[in-house]
Amino acid sequence: MKRRAPRLPLLLRCILAVLATASLSPAHAAPGELEAKIKAAYVFHIIKFVDWPSLPADALQLCVAGNDGVTQLLVDLAGKQVKDRPLKIDSDGSFEPAQCQVLYVGRPEKRWAELQARLRGQAVLTVSDQDGFARGGGIVGLYPEGGKIKLEINPDAARSANLRISAKLLELARTVP
User: Is 5 inside a domain boundary?
Assistant: First the structure.
């Protein structure tokens, strides 16, 4: 009897197909602009495949550290529904990292080591496009490869933060120690 491979939900397949096939430098958009849009879309959709031990009833808080093209686009996501809650964006830098459910660390942000120390043991999903982010203790890193943006996930960092990442998302990412 032939065994069929598990099928990914249609929504996940569609999202990942669009993101994975998007070229980083089409003629109609500046390379940096399209790359930033793809990364911001990844951040938004990754949230859907992570489970927290508990979430606030009123809103899911996405905190943004740094100031670059991706962080600017994340601000535009305010109010979008995710996990049956509106997304609240805190980008002014005055947030307490442990109060965030998601922390995006922009490429130019230099405080990652300080933020990481303050997040130890907290249920905060950390995401960044900084080089080596997941290998350096972050949970989800975005990296370019072959003209596409790909994911790397640090399962140990996710476990330390008491977060559960969907097996479907883990199948699509490179895992790092």
Answer: no
Give burial (CB, 10 Å; 0-12/13-18/19+) of 84. Answer: exposed
Q: Which CA distances in Å does 50 have to 31, 44, 67, 114?
A: 29, 11, 25, 24
Assess if residue 132 is contained within a domain: yes
3-state secondary structure of 27: coil
Tokens standing for residue 25: 């430098």
Reported pTM: 0.83
pLDDT tens-digit series, residues 76-119: 999 999 999 999 999 887 889 999 999 999 988 888 989 999 99
Measured between alpha carbons, how far is 136 from 26 in angstroms, rounded to an integer? Answer: 32
Q: Is residue 19 part of a domain?
A: yes
The span from the CA of 81 to the CA of 164, in Å, is 20
Contact in structure between 102 and 124 (CB atoms under 8 Å): yes
Contact 134/156 with Cβ under 8 angstroms? no
- Integer Cα distance of 82 and 169 in angstroms: 16
The type of residue at 133 is F
The amino acid sitting at 130 is Q
Write out the residue range of the structural domain in which residue 50 sits. 10-175
